[in-house]
Each structure stands twice: as structure tokens, then as C-alpha cells.
Amino acid sequence: MSSILAIDDEQSIRQSYRIILSSDYDVHLAENGDKGLEFLDKNHVDLILLDLTMPGKSGEDVLEVLQERGNTTPVIVVTASTSISSAVDAMKKGAWDYIQKPFDVAELMLTIKHTLRDVRQRQELNAMREADFNGFDSLIGTSTAFQEAVAKAQQAANVASAVLITGESGTGKDMLARAMHTDGPRKEEAFVPLSCCAIPAQLVESELFGYEKGAFTGADKSRVGKMKIADGGTLFLDEIGEMPIEAQVKLLRVLQDNCFFPVGSTKEIKVDLRIVCATNRNLPQAITEGIFREDLYYRINVLQIEMPPLRKRREDIPQLVEHFRIKQSPRVNARTESFAPKALNLMAAYDWPGNIRELENTVERMLVYHGQESIINEDHVSQLLPNTAPKTQNGTSGLSEYEGLPLEEATRQIESHLITRALEQADYVQSRAAEALGTTRRILKYKIDQHGIQAEKSDV
After folding, report:
1. Can you list the domains of the chain with their CATH numbers?
2. Predicted confidence (pLDDT) per residue in 36-51, tens digit
3. 249 CB contacts (<8 Å, ≥6 apart)?
């Protein structure tokens, strides 16, 4: 039975949800945004019904918190407004769908049913895409730096030693880990990924080790953790540097003794699994700061593989662009047959702070905007990528427009330009834009307000 959390400050509405939905769903209720987030800190649900207008933390505030957490649970917003603008804004912040108050019971049930179905279909589609993955043969690149990383991974694939994959965000660490599993001796068993930064810190242990019924408030049934699911196969811990210290202690025991206790249980569970970790964090520095255990570091760092950033494998960019063109064109109904050599040169010269993830995002965006052109040219590229404008006859680039300005004003304009472009490339998800700019979301928000930058996608 699917579970639903309904967050609404009106008691009558909450009770209506319970009466209407309880026969088909496991229903949980929260009277405000803070209570709802507190519940989600400790529990998993399949869908969230969220009132937009509430005292204290509003529905939009809750959406922002969920977005920062990397939430993947679908959210249906409920609004009493007769204008759809607030619902549209909410959907820009990650909501899946919306309904208006007073809602029709049939409409509510149908919207929930369709949302859960669509999420399930998307998950199945992702599983199908993963099934098409062909191990190391699916990894693209002939550059020396990339091939060195692949060669190390191929050697590591056939042994049981722990592997630590390092590298910047978006370099393909997860793909390399999956290739090691697919071409290794455990390929017939499960490959189980867990992103340590995508779930609240309080839930990491229960996600990893599972829990017994009654282990904590809201644990109304037992749940199997990722460790048990991965038994016999590979457990991939992405962004291991974000794992809470308490969970690190328990993970260390698994690496030492191949056993663990689910949360709230006294029954020991034995497992045989291969653990592969990845991080974009400097773990030795994290050890110095006291946020990562030194003994765990040496346990997971038996074999280390560094994934190079795109700026250190520029010769691979044309091949990757072509791969993403073929992959994305059917999705966006693009007719583009190729990228012009000068366009590829501009893309190869760009530093790609978001690496392969940013490159694929950019190729898709170019196909959306210019997909009816048979060839993507350098002008199309320079419109979407910062600092890639073609050189002028005297060898200068777009920076010439800042000549003659006082340093403070020139710096302000350049900063504003870079932030605007980063927001566009991140589809206006501020946490992703902040990551691409190498700053925090809080600082980025301050800069956006300071420069008066439009921080949401235009409807035009």
C-alpha cells in the first residue's frame, strides 16, 4: 500500500484526507510545514499532499527545503487561489502537479493515482536505461587521463577490495562504479546505489541498515536496508564524505566484520558485498576538520581511482557531444544532424565546471532551442555558454565591453553575467547553480538579491 503525507493547517481538510484516502493508502497527517518536514526526516512516503498557504513555513518554503535535500518524492500542491500562477511557481520549485481548493474527491483520487503511476513508469524507464548499460564499453573517451582511470577500474573490477573513486561533481564516478559491477564477478547480483547527500542525515542509518517495527516514531513496519539488498552484489556509496559520523562508525564495522544490526534490532545480519565509494570532497582535509573518520578512510581507500574533469580531457568532448546528440534528439524531437567543427571547438575550449552532467544538459538545451537546424553552429553555442563568444578581429572577446569601466563596476557586471548564465544552465535550480560556481546556495541567494537577478525561469 502506497503511503501519503498530507500537510495542511486546516484540521477539517486533514480529516477529509484521512476519510477519503485511508481505504486505499497509508495516510499520515501534519498540521504545518515544520511538522511535515520533521516527519519526513524519519519516514519515507510515496507521495506528499502540500497546502501552499500556511502560517509559519509556507508550502513554497517546504518545497525549497525539499529541493535542497534532493527530494525525489512527488509533491502535489493544493491551493485555494483562483490564479494558477502560485501553482506554476510551486511546480518550478519541484512540485509534480496541483489541485485547487475546494477539491473534488474524484479529481483528488485521479490526480494521486496518475502521479503514482507516472512516477512508477519513470522509475521503470530508468531501470530499462540501466539495463542497456554495457559496462566499460559504454564509457566514452580516448584521452590519456580518462583511459588511465578506466584501466585502473578494470583491474579493480575483478577483486573484492574496497574502491574509492574521487573527482569533481559530474565527472561520471557513478558510471565508472556501475561499469566495475557490470563487468565484475558479482554482475548477476544487485548494484545498489545510495547518495549520502540526497537523504536527510537522520535517515542515513535506516536507509543503510534498515529498521525494525517500532524502532522509532513512525516505524510502523520493518524495512530492509540497502546493505541487505546489496548482499552478494555491490553497494555504491556516492558522496561518502557527507555521511554522518554515527553512520560512519557502523559502516566501518561492516567493512571489518561483514555484519551489522538493523536500527532497533538485536539480531546480527551477515552480508557478503563489495563496497565502492565516491566523493568530490577532500577526505584528508575532512579528517583534519573532524567530520570524517581516519580509520574509515583507510578502509574504503584500498584502491583509489581519480576521474578527470572535462577540462583535463578536452579531446573527448566532440565524441561526448555526438553521443548526447544521438541520445537526446528523439526526446526533444530535434532534427539536428551534427555540430559544426567551430561549435565543437568552442565547446572543447570551455572549462565545464559541471563536467559531463553540465555538457549533457547543455547539449539537450541546444537541441531544444535549435533542434530544427540541421547543424548547430558556433553562434548557437556562444548564446548558451558564458565566455565562449567568438574572438573579434583584434583578438579580444566579449570582455572588451567592460573596458573603460571602473574596476568595481566591471567586476559587478561580470559577476552578474556569470551568475545569470549559471542559473540558466542549472535550469534555475539554485543549489546546482551554486555548485557550478563553486559557492554555497546561501551566498548565491545573497548575490542574486544584491544584483537584482531574475532567479526563476520566465514563462515567456
Report:
1. 3-129 (3.40.50.2300), 143-308 (3.40.50.300), 313-390 (1.10.8.60), 399-460 (1.10.10.60)
2. 999 988 888 899 999 9
3. 293
